[in-house]
Amino acid sequence: MQILIPILLILAYTLIVARLMLQTVCYFKGIEYKETLLHTLSFLSVLFFITADELNLFHGFIFGKARHLVFALLLVGLATAKSFKIHKERIVPHVKIKNRIVTGLTAVIIFTVLLFHLLGATFWADVSAIGYLFISVVYFIVAGKIYRRSFVVKDRGKIEKRLVIVMIVFLCVHLLFGVIAWITGFWDRFAYQGAYLVSAICIVLCLFMLPEDVKRCLLVAGKAEMNADLLTRFNVTAREQEVLSLLVKGKSYKEIGTELFISMPTVKTHVSNIYAKLNVKNKVELANSITIRS
């Protein structure tokens, strides 16, 4: 069994770092939301801290004392990132107000975690953070049911449902064993022995989502096939298709104008027409709408 942990860790870190790199490339090309990038980065941070004992990184006395606090704050960060992500990927009314509410709740939870930590109640600090993460997952499910998907995630329904089920099962199991560990007096040992569960969760999440990330990066590289039937059906002209093919490769308006020998205002007009015809609002939605789905 001892050999299983390193194998799971190597696979989990490889997959999640690959996702992060792909999302970063897409973000700098303007076809990925920063909220999605932040969510993946938060998950990677939580994975690192939960599995850090396996990497022998918590032997220092000072850092060892602070690990409960850092771990709890990272869980709060992941919960916050998850809420912001669902607000971006759904058509949410009054989204600015809801984001302020999330920010306020996060501040309250952080204060609560710090207070428990100062009082020496590390168990309740962990419970507060895990509970907030659990609430954010529940909100993720409710928001996913209530609010309509934005164009960029319209084809991810089945994947999202599976991911939510996996996350709920993980949190329920984690909370159950946490209560048992607290009652039996083994909380300190339990809190950072989740390497098996967390690594497995990370692997499942990445295997579900990596194909979408690869497909999007291929589109950025100009290697993905655009949906010609869709472009024809929405009356996208030949010139607009030329502009579109350069736009999804990450070309700037100036570079598009230079390559096609047209002025900057003409490029902007073509782009506006493309957005209107395909009913999209940004490059993220545009890239997803014109890619052929398998």
Molecular structure report:
- This protein has 294 residues and is mainly alpha-helical.
- It folds into two domains: 4-220; 228-290, Orthogonal Bundle (Arc Repressor Mutant, subunit A).
- Helices cover 77% and strands 0% of the residues.
Give structural attributes.
mainly alpha; elongated; 2 domains; Arc Repressor Mutant, subunit A; 294 residues
Spatial separation of the terminal alpha carbons: 39 Å
Structural shape: elongated
Give the amount of beta strand, in percent: under 5%
Helix and strand succession? HHHHHHHHHHHHH
Radius of gyration: 22 Å
Total domain units: 2
Average pLDDT, all residues: 77
- Name the poorly predicted regions: none
Class based on secondary structure composition and strand pairing:
mainly alpha
Oligomer: single chain
Helix content: over 70%
Strand count, sense and barrel status of the largest sheet are: none
